[in-house]
Amino acid sequence: MIDHISTSIPPLHNAGEGNKPLSGNRGAAEKAEFKPPENAGAASELSEEQQKQVDELKKRDQEVRAHEAAHKNAGGQYAGSASYTYTVGPDGKRYATGGEVPIDVAPVEGDPEATVAKLDVVIAAALAPAKPSAQDRQVAAAAVAARNKARAELAAKEKEELSGEGDVKEPFDVNDFGSTPQASVNKAYEGGLNLGQEVPNTSGVNFSEVS
User: Fold this and answer.
1) What is the pTM of this model?
2) pLDDT tens digits, residue range 82-109?
3) Of 9, 118, 126, 197, which residue is most buried, by most CB within 10 angstroms?
């Protein structure tokens, strides 16, 4: 499944709402409402209001690109290339005013452990920008739910594997004295040898508690 994580920056100058079915808040392609003046390349010919609009568009362009770059860098192999929507400013230049990055949020079939690891990356990618958009948070929330499901599947799988092993006991090792100090073991062994030499050769010997 491919979802999208997108810019959180609101449209400038009351732009339209853009393509919400895929991106939620793609940044909305702002239509080129400005007719660039003749010889638009000459900044001196822009009015004060037009220059203000250009400055806003430049700032928006930088923020949008930084936002999508954060998604892409954090998403790694699961994130696709960023795509942008543009606005033509009064200076005749195009500025990015919206963008989105596709992200693969599908679980790894038959491997809940790999799914958990993958969705950890997806969640980090969705929340990577300084100001995640509503769509970013929705993608993160969906990934968290899917990750929790994968964790439950993994726990059930591990429990099943453990129960299938049964109560297997290790064979008894006469030389395994557990946590008993080796010095104590040696002393007991030597004492046993001495007792063996001192006990008369009689029958009917019994072990008893030491008084």
Assistant:
1) 0.60
2) 999 999 999 999 999 999 999 999 999 9
3) 126
